[in-house]
Amino acid sequence: MMSVRIINARFPKNPDLQQIEIDSKGIICAINPIEFLGIETLNETSERTIDIAGDWLSLGGVDLQINGGLGLAFPDLELSHLAKLDKICSFLWSQGIDGFLPTIVTTSVEKIQRSLVTIAKFIDEQTTVANTAKVLGVHLEGPFLNYEKRGAHPQQHLLPLTIENIKQVLGDYSQLIKVITLAPELDKSDRAIEYLVERGIVVSLGHSLATAAIARTAFARGASMVTHAFNAMPGLHHRQPGLLGEAIMNPKVHCGLIADGNHICPTMLKILLRASNEEGIFLVSDALAPIGLPDGVYPWDEREIKVTNGTAKLADGTLAGTTLPLLAGVKNLAEWGICNVESAIATATESPRKAIALPGLAVGQPANLLRWHWQENNLSWSRLDLS
Q: Where residue 206 sits, what CATH number does that domain have?
């Protein structure tokens, strides 16, 4: 590849025009402001210049909660699925995703272990080939969840939150786990959160009835995330702020959101973003295995889900998730007027990286860039071709 200079670019949360220098290896080597009427201090060694005329540039999306793809649910993974995982990574790349955490929802310990073995082998064998999303680790959503807020998680596989049960679930793969969702009120020993944090695992509170006091204690012990805010937890109440109210007030806590218009009313999305000054808010898809497939009825553990217009429900009407890709949520935030364009882009590109301590758009990063264009209340994106 030749070295490239990109001019007249805007970044998430930075409306000023910038220029980016990318070396022949595809690495960002310089980022500098640019004057509106002309270029300041161009690198004359660049072999090609791309003027993107005020559009936004970002790294690709990072999805911290996705349950499967192309018909394969991550809790069902076996070693025979390695090739299918590779196809899922290619599909997600085509949807603008640079990296993701395969999410294993509540199931038997045996199935969790089988899935972890498969993902560990896949990561070990995953090459540096371009144009494919990377598996960044695993998100365990359960099995330490509150029965009353289990949602679509099967009750027979829920477990008490004890150190012994944590060891059993993680087995030899604690280093593979990046995020674990749990209900902090189940921690009767008051040791579980610290045990997980000490092992470098991000603790996310969710599927919980935690009070504000319990949540405050959990955050003090090291929990730093909330799983699909508003969903599977008490709503905001003027006398009982609860888990979510405590999270909004804590600048160190990152809250995940599903912006499909069904999991959360757009008005509540706007309230949460305004209350938090948009800091620490990131989007997740929470997409289920049928993402990439048409609407219809699909197997889901021992049950079935019906997907209609991208929304998945159990037979009893329980909301199970979506089949909409992560960047559809970015479009929704911008086109519904929930926030400005650059902030919407940040919720799927910069903020999730920050939540798991990954670097954002900066010098030294691979230039896997998305170009975002806003016109007539429509936000579109494309992979920026640097070849």
A: 3.20.20.140
**Rounded Cα–Cα distance for residues 224 and 202 (Å):** 7
Question: Which tens digit of pLDDT belongs to each residue from 307-357?
Answer: 998 888 888 888 888 899 999 999 999 999 999 999 999 999 999 999 999
Is omega for the bond preceding 241 within 30 degrees of 0, making it cis?
A: no
Residue ranges of E strands in 118-276 = 134-135, 138-141, 177-182, 202-205, 225-226, 254-257
Same domain, yes or no: 114 and 131: yes
Distance CA 181, CA 162 (A): 14
Q: Annotated catalytic sites, by residue?
A: 286
Burial class (CB in 10 A: 0-12, 13-18, 19+), 183: buried
- pLDDT, one tens digit per residue, over 172-202 is 999 999 999 999 999 999 999 999 999 999 9
Q: How far is CA 228 from CA 255, 297, 333, 344, in A?
A: 7, 24, 16, 17
pTM, 2 dp: 0.94
The rounded distance, in Å, linking the Cα atoms of 161 and 180 is: 12
